[in-house]
Design goal:
alpha+beta, five-stranded mixed β-sheet, five-stranded antiparallel β-sheet, 10 strands, globular
Length: 152
């Protein structure tokens, strides 16, 4: 073997060794929802909602994270709500929509009020009762979807 081939092989050895130990690449998500006005020709409006209702799902508390989905996407700090064991929440969901929402989906987890580091359990889909740009969600009218472990 000539010297050039040996040097080339020696150069590639550390690279292949690093490839075996390198972490999987992280996925970067860019929401296309920020351009829904341009895509649909419709105007975005802000909607604000409250969550209430007693449900067996609440336990010692229920943390809900709004899941973006047409015709709406979440706004800043208005995408998380905590529901107390008595079925009340002092949080408000804030979303921007090109059409009035009929249903809303959340990722959910049973947790105390300040448990932001908990991994959510699955999906919860709730019907929306609208009054103009204000809406209400009754937890007794929500449907529990599959847990994350059920997705392949």
């Amino acid at each position: 073997m000539n010297m050039k081939k040996i040097l080339c092989l020696l150069t590639l050895l550390p690279i292949s060794a690093m490839a075996d130990t390198a972490p999987a690449p992280r996925v970067s998500i860019f929401s296309t929802s920020t351009d829904w006005e341009a895509v649909t020709g419709l105007t975005l409006n802000e909607y604000r909602g409250k969550i209430s209702g007693r449900s067996d799902l609440i336990g010692r508390g229920l943390v809900l994270y709004y899941l973006d989905g047409f015709p709406c996407y979440g706004l800043g700090d208005g995408v998380r709500a905590w529901v107390a064991p008595n079925g009340t929440s002092d949080n408000e969901i804030r979303i921007a929509c090109v059409a009035e929402p009929k249903t809303i989906s959340f990722a959910w987890v049973n947790a105390s009020r300040d448990a932001d580091d908990r991994t959510t359990t699955g999906i919860l889909t709730c019907s929306v009762k609208s009054n103009g740009r204000d809406f209400a969600i009754d937890l007794t009218k929500c449907t529990r979807g599959p847990d994350w472990d059920d997705y392949e």
